[in-house]
Amino acid sequence: MPQHVPAFVLEPAEDSTAVGPERLHADEIDVAAPHPGEVLVDVAACGVCHTDLHVMKDEVAFPTPAVLGHEVSGVVREVGEGVTHVAPGDRVACSFIMPCGTCRHCEKGLEDLCETFFQQNRLAGHLYDGTTRYSREGEDVAMYSMGGHARSCVVPGRAVFPLPDEVPLHDAAILGCSLFTGYGAVRGVADVQPGENVAVVATGGVGLSIIHLARAAGAQRVIAVDIDDEKLALAAELGATDVINSSTQDAADEVRRLLGHGVDVAFEALGSVATVSLAVDLLDDGGRAVLAGIAPAGQTLDVEIAKLVRRKLRILGSFGAPASTTMPEVIRLAAEGNIDLERLITDRFTFEEIGEAYRKLNDREIRGRGLVVVRPELR
Question: Is 144 left (phi over 0), alpha (psi -120 to 50) or beta?
Fold first, then answer.
């Protein structure tokens, strides 16, 4: 039988100006039982991510009505046929990339490029049989990843990972996007080596995770670049060796003053033309710019080709990571105390405050990662 649960539903925009968090409305939806290979999770917490905000603002196309929220932790309520690695009652965290395991990319280990995930979920709002598990009064409701802005959600089993007792259940939500994305950028794409110098442009939730993980990877200097002094102060607490406010300083000049040259790796964690261009400008000869921020559709990068060629620069995209190998690793790092989840989470909201959480994110009032505590009673 379907569950009838509270959720925040993103409604269709009434006109081109009515976009943003105001489109979120508290309602109730029906959540169907998990199909084979799926897991029904009672949501403990869900992270507040800029990617969801892009969807609310129609900067990323997605069908509506929809339930957003793609950074989830919770407790397993029910498992579908064939799921054996978790059982009802297990504490779990979920990766926002939900690999099918059978497409041509997944078969090569490139789960972060899973064609089924992008075609069925990120374009159509479905799970992998072409249907959604959410409905409202008989009408389909799209799912953005697992749709964590509801008190229960259904997740493909390949995106569900058990948590050890050492990892706090609510805080573990941010492992599935913020830390997952950061780890993919630092270790999977950039392959940061001990002694390298890195810069991180934009120090929100993902940027702070990159700073934290770059220091853990042995980076010698980690230079945080942002326009907000409070965010930069938090970046210093989480491992940045140097901070630059690019609204008052020329970041490229300041990096070269600090190091005598550019950085080996520059991470971009916002998704704008200005911040991506800045990341490229911060590079030393032979350096690599790793772009981890999602930009609104249609934005393009204008790079001086001669500089790119002569200086042997590399521009690399990074979208998440392979879930099957990365999630166990970030969970292990959290269990061993090598990731400071409590400090990364700077703002906590109740389930009823989801709209307010995204308004604050839109107004740049969240210093690090925001977290919505959906079911405070779960532990």
Answer: beta
CATH architecture of 180-317: 3-Layer(aba) Sandwich (3.40)
pLDDT for 16 equals 58
Query: What residues does each domain of the chain span?
Result: 3-177+321-373, 180-317
Concatenated DSSP letters of 211-273: HHHHHHTT-SEEEEEES-HHHHHHHHHTT-SEEEETTTS-HHHHHHHHHSS-EEEEEE-S--H
CATH 3.90.180.10 for domain 3-177+321-373, yes or no, is yes
pLDDT (mean) for 327-335: 96
Q: What is the pLDDT of residues 341-370, one digit of tens each?
A: 999 999 999 999 999 999 999 999 998 999
Per-residue model confidence (pLDDT) at position 302: 83
pTM of the model: 0.92
pLDDT of residue 296: 81
Q: What is the DSSP string of 110-167?
A: -GGG-HHIIIIIITT---TTS--SEEETTEEEEESTT--SBSEEEEEGGGEEE--TTS
> How far is 373 from 71, CA to CA, in rounded Å?
12
